[in-house]
Design goal:
The chain has two domains: 127 residues, Alpha-Beta Complex (Aspartate Aminotransferase, domain 1), CATH 3.90.1150.10; 229 residues, Aspartate Aminotransferase, domain 2. It is of the alpha/beta class. The protein contains twelve helices and twelve strands. The strands form three sheets. Strands 2-8-7-6-5-3-4 form a seven-stranded mixed sheet, with helices on both faces.
């Protein structure tokens, strides 16, 4: 199997797997218990918290959550005041903002240009005094574009608003601007385990709780933590920190090789320059993506967000770029990273291109 779906999830790092094992097998105590095994588990959680926080801006605190979706819901539902967000955000943001709007909270969704980037003048016009929260994604999960988060944070702060950054796809890969007030992240996008995320909050930021109970985590998040998941997350973050330069160079090389291999029939969706290069979202006129995926079952790639894979609607991200339904439906997403092999990537591209050309001949 050639795995090219890194935006959906990344392979678990062997080091993260090994770090988790003792906490699954032997050291099973509740990290919120006061006895010695509980304190040992608590120490592992706090070591992991430090490792994850090392990739985030200074001057804040990190609360572990069950997922980035929980973290984003908490940040949005726990804040107050009108919300401004962007049309290409993840469903965890857009659906939560829509839910808040149905409850009477004012919400504005900013459009993007053909390259997937928000217009900062439009943002300044929408983010006015009285705005409570601006929610923006650092690296888009479908097209890889990198939004101007630092500039959006400045605009938000000038209006007295908080800036929530969905950094799920950028964490450990792209520097997170220090102007953020809250940052949502997930372990399984950086070679950690599924089932754990986190919300980083700048000191002084206060949120209403999303979950009620023991209030074990900073900010009042309730629920018993898994030391195993925390240890895996911490190890994955530590590896991302140590391997940052090597991982970046590898992804850049893969991106260059892939671009050189692609023919003129393929068009890249989204910005080429303001982009995380571990993402290639491509369209080809007339492509039957469902058939392509079915024919190439030993190549793992997608038609877009895994979170929306059950929907037959065209990608809301691609539609926000101005693509027609037909153009959106003939687009595929390829994601690669640390454990991707260049020869396998080029083989996959060759086979994808050949299958697409066969479709055209038979059409």
């Amino acid at each position: 199997m050639i795995y090219l779906d890194y935006q959906a999830t990344t392979p678990l790092a062997p080091e993260a797997f090994e770090a988790m094992l003792p906490w699954l097998r032997d050291d099973f105590a509740n990290p919120h218990s006061a006895h010695a095994p509980g304190r040992k588990a608590k120490a592992a959680v706090e070591a992991a918290r430090d490792d994850v926080a090392s990739l985030l801006p200074p001057g804040g605190e990190l609360a572990f959550t069950g997922s980035a979706t929980e973290a984003l819901n908490w940040a949005i539902q726990g804040s107050s005041g009108p919300i401004v967000t962007i049309a290409t955000e993840h469903a965890a943001v857009l659906d939560t903002v829509e839910s808040e709007a149905r409850r009477g909270r004012m919400a504005t969704v900013l459009p993007v240009a053909r390259d997937g980037l928000v217009d900062l003048d439009a943002a300044r016009a929408a983010i006015v005094p009285g705005t409570g929260l601006v929610a923006a994604m650092l690296v888009n999960n479908e097209i890889g574009t990198i939004q101007p988060i630092a500039a959006l944070a400045d605009i938000a702060h000038s209006a007295g608003a908080l800036l929530l950054c969905d950094a799920v796809q950028g964490f450990g890969r792209v520097a997170i601007p220090e102007g953020c007030d809250m940052v949502a992240i997930s372990a399984h996008k950086i070679h950690g385990p599924k089932g754990i995320g986190a919300l980083w909050m700048r000191k002084g930021v206060s949120l209403a709780p999303l979950l009620h109970g023991g209030g074990q985590e900073p900010g009042g998040r309730s629920g018993t933590l898994s030391p195993a998941l925390c240890a895996g997350f911490g190890t994955a973050a530590r590896l991302a920190n140590a391997r940052a330069d090597a991982d970046h160079a590898h992804v850049e090389q893969l991106f260059r090789a892939a671009r050189a291999r692609l023919g003129s029939e393929w068009t890249v969706n989204g910005s080429i320059d303001a982009r995380y290069h571990g993402n290639l979202n491509l369209r080809r006129i007339g492509l039957d993506v469902a058939r392509l995926i079915s024919e190439l079952r030993d190549i793992a790639f997608s038609a877009g967000s895994a979170c929306a894979s059950g929907s037959r609607r065209p990608s809301h991200v691609l539609r926000a770029l101005g693509l027609s339904d037909a153009e959106a439906r003939c687009s595929i997403r390829l994601g690669f990273g640390r454990y991707s092999n260049q020869d396998e990537l080029l083989e996959a591209l060759e086979r994808i291109d050949a299958a697409a050309r066969t479709q055209k001949v038979m059409a």
